[in-house]
Structure formats: C-alpha cells, structure tokens
Amino acid sequence: MLAIKTSATFAPPSRLRQPADFRLLRTWLGRHAHLLHVTECLLCHEGTNGGAVCGKCLQGLGRARVQPAGRCDRCYLRLSSKDAHCSFCDDRNVYFDRHISLYQLTPAWREILHHWKFHNGRRLYGLFRPALRRIRSELRNTRIDSVCYIDSGLLSRRNRRYQPCLDPARYLASLAGIPARAGLRKMKSTRQSEEIFNRRFFAVHDKIAPNGSSGGAVQILLEDLWTTGATANEAARVLKKNGVRKVIVLSLLLREETF
Ligand SMILES: [Zn+2]
Ligand SMILES: [Zn+2]
C-alpha cells in the first residue's frame, strides 16, 4: 500500500515506523480508505478490503450455519431429544416435502438482513452465494425444474426497488441451469374479505396466489427468512394445489428461539 505515490497529504505519519502503533495506522487507513479501496465493515465498522463485511465478521456469519444433525428430515426444525418427536410436523398438515435452511438468524445475520431488505443493500445477497453453491452441490442428484420465490407485492415495493429473493433465486437457478420465477405473489386483500376470512378460520393467513404458469413438477421455494413456517407451508399448499408435485423449501435464514 505504501507503494502508492505519496504527497504531503497522503504520507503516513512518521510514527508508523514503530510497528506496534496500530491505532495510528488504522486512523490513517480510515482517512485514506477510498484510495486503497478499503471500505467499512457493515457489522464492526473496521476496514474491509472491498467487501461489505470484514474477514473476522464473515467467519462469525459462517459459524451460524444450520447443522442438519438432530433435525426433522422434513421441516428441518430441532427434534425434541426424548423421542425424536417433531412438534411442527405432528401439529399440522405439512405441504412441502423438505425444508433446508442456511444460517441461524444471529444478531449479525439480523443486521445483514435488515440492510439487505430495508436499506437497498441489494448486493448483500452475495453473502449467501457460497452456501447456495453448497446446496446446489448437495442437491445435484435431485430433479429440480425451477426456483420459485414469492413476489411480495406493491406494498413492499414502495419501500425498496427490488425483490430481495430474486437475486439469490436467480443465482441458485443459474448454477442449476433452470429458470427462477416469481411463481407466487402475496395478495393485497380488501378489509372486508379479510374480515370474512378471519371469521371463518379464526386465524390470519398470508394470502398467497399463483402467479403465471406452473414452473414444473419439482420446485425449490426460496424464502429469505423462516420464522413460524406458516408462509412457506401456505406457499407449498398453493403450489401443490396448482399441480406442483414436490416442493423443497430453502430458507436463507432460520429464526429459532435460541436467538
Ligand atoms: Zn467486521
Ligand atoms: Zn418436522
């Protein structure tokens, strides 16, 4: 870095000759970061070499990877230790065939998610790319016809200019050589119909409708965040009702009670 042409303004302070003075070096690097293509880490605000997150924080994000051991084969949630009982699958009709999740929603991932979705941090989807490559490799012997995501509709479009799940869906689809499509959309319900719905079923459901043609018999449904599983299950139900035979839910982040 010191090979760059220095002028009086850019020259590092002479005290840097004492190698232990990292604080000075950091201040100097911070001031001239733009010259060295160093940006600030989104999480710890230290310098990074061009990435959104520094190496140390990236490692922390990686450690939040969801491990499959001790989880239900179908819904991917933790089994109770006693009898391998799955409270999710035993309590309801499950419409998807399998769920896989990439990372636990740790405080660091929560912050990334927030920037990605609400601060127009579109390129942050890139943090999922290595894990998406791993999933593609794990599923290489599974037939998949398309990657589907839910178009979140006009209401959210007012807050951001892009569909967050579009980029990871497109990336995964490109690895597999299959199409990515907004096969479902969230419906904006009128107040009246919502009321009737609630009276009939005593519960609020996400209203999800099919969008365009089916997209094939076997689909990956890509979701940014799994919280209760209600949205994914309802989306899978709608896909199956419309002729999809097998639905694999892939959630980028998983919110479990430990976090
Ligand atoms: Zn950092
Ligand atoms: Zn289960």
Would you mind describing this structure in some detail?
- With 259 residues, this protein is α/β, with parallel strands linked by helices.
- It has one domain: Rossmann fold.
- The chain contains 9 helices and 8 strands.
- It has helices at 22-31, 55-63, 87-91, 107-118, 129-138, 153-157, 166-176, 191-201, 230-241; strands spanning 39-40, 47-48, 98-104, 146-151, 180-186, 208-210, 218-226, 246-254.
- Strands 3-8-7-4-5-6 form a 6-stranded mixed beta sheet.
- Strand 7 (218-226), helix 9 and strand 8 form a beta-alpha-beta unit.
- The relative contact order is 0.13.
Bound molecule kinds, no repeats? zinc ion
Uncertain residue segments:
none
Share of β-strand residues: 15-25%
Number of helices: 9
State the distance separating the first and last CA atoms: 40 Å
Largest sheet: 6 strands, mixed
Looking across the biggest beta sheet, what order are the strands in? 3-8-7-4-5-6
CATH architecture: 3-Layer(aba) Sandwich
The overall pLDDT average reads 84
Number of domains: 1
Portion in helices: 25-40%
* Counted beta strands: 8
Level-1 CATH class name: Alpha Beta
Structural class: alpha/beta
Morphology: elongated
CATH-derived topology = Rossmann fold
